[in-house]
Amino acid sequence: MLRDKFREFSRDTSSIGQERVDAANGLADALIAAGHSENATVAEWKDGLNEAWADLLELMDTRSQMLAASYELHRFFHDARETLAQIRDKQQQLPEEVGRDLNTAEAMQRLHSAYEHDIQALSAQVRQVQEDAGRLAKAYAGEKAAEIRRQEQAVSQAWAQLRGSSHGRRRLLLDTVDKFRFLRGVRDLLLWMDGVRLQIEGQERPR
């Protein structure tokens, strides 16, 4: 990766360069201390060398910061697209069937509980995208800032839709289970009433 290569280059260059600059400064100081006839020229060259070295260090630092910012921006767009794709995939996994009887409805209810636990893991990714977008949008302007906001809004809207769909299905499954339980209760009660009626009709009538 370009950022890592430049970081390594900058580290090596700073280390080697500082050794060389220190050696040149040491030599210049020794010449000046010895009362060299060209003291003024040596001091001038020493100052020029140190100024050039400071400029180079500043240039490397600026370049490193630019690469770090570029990497962070690209990582944000990658993470946002990845999170959005996962949310949409989970949205498509939501079934419409609610079950034909109590057993299948309860089974689907259990499956949906596992599904909700599964999508909850996405909340951390969504929150990270939102936090990164808020921070990066302040550092950029114009089209880049607008694109950052668009990516964050797409993720947030898809996440809100997924949570809404998941909540709606949970409510629907709960209503379906309650309905089948009620119908089973009614059926059991009717069977019991039929049994009582048969007992009554089977008894010997009084004369």
Could you characterize what this model shows?
InterPro entries: Spectrin/alpha-actinin (IPR018159), Spectrin_repeat (IPR002017). It comes from Nycticryphes semicollaris. This is SPTN2 protein. One of its GO terms (molecular function) is actin binding. Keywords: Actin-binding, Coiled coil, Repeat. With 207 residues, this protein is mostly helical. It has a single domain (1-203), classed as Methane Monooxygenase Hydroxylase, Chain G, domain 1 (Up-down Bundle), CATH 1.20.58. It has five helices and no strands. The protein has helices at residues 2-33, 39-92, 102-120, 122-139, 142-202. The radius of gyration is 37 Å and the shape is rod-shaped.
Protein traits:
Spectrin_repeat; rod-shaped; 207 residues; repeat; Spectrin/alpha-actinin; Methane Monooxygenase Hydroxylase, Chain G, domain 1
Number of discrete domains = 1
Give the % helix. over 70%
Strand content: under 5%
Pairing-aware structural class of the strands and helices?
mainly alpha
Which consecutive residue ranges, at least 5 long each, have pLDDT under 50? none
Distance between the termini: 104 Å
CATH architecture group name: Up-down Bundle
| CATH top level label | Mainly Alpha
* H and E order: HHHHH
Number of strands: 0
CATH topology (level 3) name:
Methane Monooxygenase Hydroxylase, Chain G, domain 1
* Principal-axes shape call: rod-shaped
Biggest β-sheet strands, sense, barrel: none
The helix tally amounts to: 5
Protein name: SPTN2 protein
GO molecular function: actin binding
Organism: Nycticryphes semicollaris
Pfam families: Spectrin
